[in-house]
Specification:
heterodimer, A: alpha+beta, four-stranded antiparallel sheet, three-stranded antiparallel sheet, 3 helices, 23% helix, elongated, B: mainly alpha, two-stranded antiparallel ribbon, two-stranded antiparallel sheet, 4 strands, 2% strand
Chain lengths: 173, 487
């Protein structure tokens, strides 16, 4: 379709052609072509952009991590598994956190590096004292999750936590 | 001989053309063919449309038996997702319609005559590719119709003598329709066929451009030269616009439906053919079993279309007369008339014999889930399971139903079961659920019904509805619940 218009419409005007002017005909054609493009691209674009258009419908769930009294002192590494709706896929997701207390506040730290999302390891026995270490770019966080050296500029993510019937729960979506 | 073939190929492919036929912005057009000659460009627009909607759908779709249906249902919940599914599905139908008209137009004009043989043949191959898209695409949603229709269609291939075993395996990717069939059809639908289609379309369009439009029937040369060609371009834009408006209207008025998830153990489901294949199915029904020769459904499904396609391919050499008028081409006219009568006649018969299957939006399941949009009430289902024990003497709900007195009362079995009450003057005024209650209590029964009548006090509305909810669950949900329990 396109090659016909390109090759023919640029040719010399046909002054003897009867009916509406060439300009009017071309304007109509362009309008119709635009309408066609809209009819194709609006639904296709909407579906393509579904990740943006869909407002965050992630339901929040509270997932048990362990008995609260296990974390009375120091830091402890724990894994927990929960059901996560990933589009149409119902996935079982396992996450690793480091749990401790800062005064009366619960401190549940994600082990995702805040630089590019690598998994950081909890090294309680490291030479310079306990730390989080990211193997990707040698990022280091202190035991409360604050960045110490390397590329990360943001502290480790803190998960919302609460105790229910003696069990420590964290909020996941 | 070789030199002659070479010369023929050079000429017919336009490889030796000395400049193309733009004629300084003036294109010859056969008299009275302006609108008919928009069909080709509209087809190109439709195929671009199919490609774009297809890409959008493929972003969310997953070709796995555990995921295909779920991901399609997920698409239906996304912004304009169901609309895009509908547009893609109806777009295929539109391609078939427009391609059919385009082919008949060329046929009536004898456009396959020299020097346009390759334009014609590439067009016939494009028709086959288009049908391949429909054949493979219809399996992808993995619902009852998708699955069961593919079982039947690939079954025909297995029935062909000698090569049946191999052709069945090649088509299905395994002995049964399953995971291997799904990935195979998906690969063919999104990789192989587009890879064949695109170069063929480019060749077809390029060649028809080089060779110019075929003259109208009865003339040797196109009679009119359209200055500037711009009015024809306007016609093309108008036609494409009209087709797209119709497609959008269809996809909004009749949204793409998803039936229950494919259930290989359900033998009650009767799949439907695509509308453009309905005539073949009906020929099988009417002529599939021949006296003496026995069951030969592969003849109407494989041999007859094979002969028809070969005839079309060879048309340039079958019809060698000079006259372009259809009345002066008796063989071609006879083929067209017989072909049209067979397709129209058997299609009509097929459509008049359609039987209903239950769908999420038109069944008890739909009643309990507001058309499939929410989950069933688990408490009610559990209650229904207990109450169903009374029915279980004669009926099975899920699983083994061999040797029971009454029919299996699965969710979609219900529709056939309730068909008995249809047409009853009282039933007309009732909802689906009311009809079911009345039937079980003994009203609305045909006189020859074997089911006993039960006293009303045994059958409270509450118990009846709970039983209905229990037997109306999606079989996949039942299987899932059973699996969870055994874990």
């Amino acid at each position: 379709m396109a090659d016909r218009t390109d090759e023919t419409l640029g040719a010399q005007p046909a002054e003897d052609a009867p009916g509406p002017s060439r300009r009017a005909v071309l304007a109509c054609t362009a309008a119709l072509a635009g309408a066609c493009a809209a009819m194709i691209m609006v639904p296709v674009g909407a579906l393509f952009s579904a990740p943006v258009l869909q407002s965050g419908t992630g339901e929040e769930t509270w997932v048990p991590v362990g008995q609260a009294d296990e974390f009375a002192s120091g830091r402890a590494e724990r894994e927990y598994t929960f059901k996560h709706q990933d589009g149409w896929h119902e996935a079982m997701v396992t996450k690793r956190v480091v749990v401790g207390k800062e005064g009366e506040e619960w401190l549940v730290l994600s082990t995702r590096c805040t630089h590019l999302g690598c998994g950081v390891s909890w090294e309680p026995e490291a030479d310079g004292g306990a730390r989080f270490y990211c193997p990707c770019h040698a990022g280091v966080f202190d035991p409360s999750g604050k960045p110490v050296s390397g590329p990360p500029s943001r502290p480790l993510d803190r998960l919302e936590a609460k105790v229910l019937d003696g069990v420590l729960m964290v909020k996941e979506s | 001989m070789a030199a002659k073939t070479r010369e023929w190929l050079l000429d017919r492919t336009g490889a030796n053309a000395t400049g193309n036929a733009t004629h300084g912005g003036q294109r010859p057009l056969p008299r009275g063919m302006g609108w008919l000659n928009t069909l080709g460009p509209v087809l190109v627009a439709l195929l671009v449309f199919e490609a774009l909607t297809g890409v959008a759908l493929a972003m969310f779709y997953s070709p796995h038996p555990d995921a295909a249906y779920e991901s399609t249902r997920y698409i239906h919940g996304l912004p304009m997702g169901q609309l895009v599914h509908g547009l893609h599905k109806y777009g295929e139908s539109a391609v078939i319609v427009v391609l059919g008209l385009h082919l008949v137009r060329a046929y009536l004009q004898a456009a396959y005559r020299p020097p346009r043989e390759l334009v014609w043949i590439s067009g016939v191959i494009l028709l086959l590719i288009t049908m391949g898209f429909g054949f493979t695409g219809s399996l992808l949603p993995w619902d009852q119709n998708a699955y069961n229709a593919t079982v039947v269609r690939t079954g025909y291939a297995s029935e062909v003598p000698l090569i049946g075993y191999i052709s069945g395996l090649m088509l299905r990717g395994g002995p049964e329709v399953g995971a291997l069939t799904l990935t195979r059809f998906y690969a063919i639908h999104v990789v192989l066929l587009p890879a064949l289609l695109v170069p063929l379309i480019i060749g077809h369009v390029r060649l028809s451009w080089v060779k110019g439009p075929a003259p109208e029937a009865g003339a040797a040369q196109p009679s009119a030269v359209v200055p500037g060609y711009h009015t024809q371009v306007l016609r093309i834009a108008l036609a494409a616009f009209g087709v797209l408006v119709l497609l959008n209207a269809a996809a909004v008025i009749w949204p793409a439906e998803l039936e229950f998830k494919a259930n290989p153990s359900d033998a009650t489901y009767k799949p439907r053919a695509e509308w453009y294949m309905m005539f073949l199915l009906q020929i099988v029904k009417d002529w599939g079993a021949l006296p003496i020769l026995g069951k030969m459904s592969w003849i109407p499904v494989v041999v007859i279309p094979g002969i028809a396609m070969t005839f079309l391919m060879l048309a340039p050499w079958i019809d060698r007369s000079e006259d372009r008028r259809i009345g002066k081409r008796p063989v071609m006219a006879a083929f067209l008339v017989i072909g049209s009568l067979v397709i129209l006649g058997f299609s009509f018969r097929g459509f008049s014999q359609l039987h209903p299957n239950a769908t999420p939006s038109d069944s008890l399941y739909g009643n309990f889930t507001t058309g499939g949009t929410r989950a069933m009430d688990e408490v009610q289902v559990a209650k229904g399971k207990t109450a169903f024990v009374a029915c279980g003497g004669c009926h099975a709900a899920y699983g083994d139903f061999q040797g029971r007195m009454g029919p299996s009362l699965t969710a979609y079995g219900m529709k056939t079961f309730l068909a008995e009450v249809e047409g009853h003057p009282e039933a007309e005024k009732m909802s689906f659920l009311q009809r079911y209650r009345a039937y079980v209590r003994g009203d609305l029964r045909p006189p020859n019904s074997k089911m006993p009548k039960y006293p009303v006090e045994q059958l409270s509305d509450e118990n009846l509805d709970a039983t209905a909810a229990y037997i109306s669950q999606e079989p996949s949900a039942v299987a899932k619940a059973a699996a969870n329990k055994s874990e």
